[in-house]
Design goal:
This protein is α+β, with helices and mostly antiparallel strands. The chain folds into 2 domains: 63 residues, no CATH class; 101 residues, no CATH class. Helix content is 32%, strand content 29%. It is built from 3 helices and 13 strands; from the N terminus they run βββαβββαβαββββββ. The chain has a 5-stranded mixed sheet with strand order 4-13-12-9-8. It has a 3-stranded antiparallel sheet with strand order 1-2-3, with helices on one face. Strands 7-10-11 form a 3-stranded antiparallel sheet, with no helix packed on it. The longest helix is centred in the first third of the chain and has 37 residues. It starts with 6 loop residues before the first strand and ends with a strand.
């Protein structure tokens, strides 16, 4: 199944959990056959995604070579992530066990009922937030925030929501612990 950050992860459609245990890569499955089949499907999907990614890289390289030959400029590939971080699940003070994205949408979406929190703009989707987080992990300022924990801040250059005071916010703050994205919010 590839390398996964430590934590508990939900398998879409299986209604079961898969848990990564230790650095040895041992998986504990709950739910028997359904969890096993979901894990196999995830592994197959990862292999397909890897093949598609390699094909896309080749196509980008070919396109860049064609642009250079025609006297144009090649497009740059995005920078590498500064820290290793993946989406996973954790137990939160408000909401209990949920994925990082569920926590973000629950606590920081435009219509969340929480007071004294920053919020994303109305209409912000999970896909938008994944993009913001990816940009922050590639180009943001990384600061240690305890053992195995990091805080990443990045100005996206456009308003993405409001800060705690209700003012327009164009920066994002991402917290990563043990390689798992815990939360991300505008500030």
């Amino acid at each position: 199944m590839g390398r996964v950050a430590a934590g508990v992860f939900a398998i879409p459609g299986a209604g079961n959990l898969i848990k990564y245990v230790g650095k040895g890569g041992k998986y504990v499955l709950r739910g028997g056959k359904a969890a096993y089949e979901a894990a196999q499907a995830t592994q197959t999907g990862t292999k397909i995604a890897g093949a598609l990614g390699r094909r896309a890289e080749r196509e980008l390289a070919e396109e860049g070579a064609e642009r250079l030959a025609a006297g144009g400029a090649a497009r740059a590939l995005p920078g590498a992530r500064q820290i290793e971080a993946a989406w996973g699940a954790s137990t939160y003070r408000h909401g209990g066990l949920m994925t990082g994205m569920e926590h973000i949408m629950y606590r920081h979406s435009a219509g969340s009922g929480f007071a004294n929190v920053s919020r994303y703009a109305q209409g912000t989707t999970a896909r938008n937030i994944v993009g913001y987080v990816d940009d922050a992990l590639r180009y943001g300022t990384v600061s240690p925030n305890g053992p195995g924990a990091y805080m990443v801040e990045h100005n996206l250059g456009r308003a993405i929501g409001t800060n705690i005071a209700g003012e327009a916010a164009s920066s994002i703050r991402v917290f990563v612990r043990d390689g798992v994205i815990q939360t991300a919010f505008p500030f």
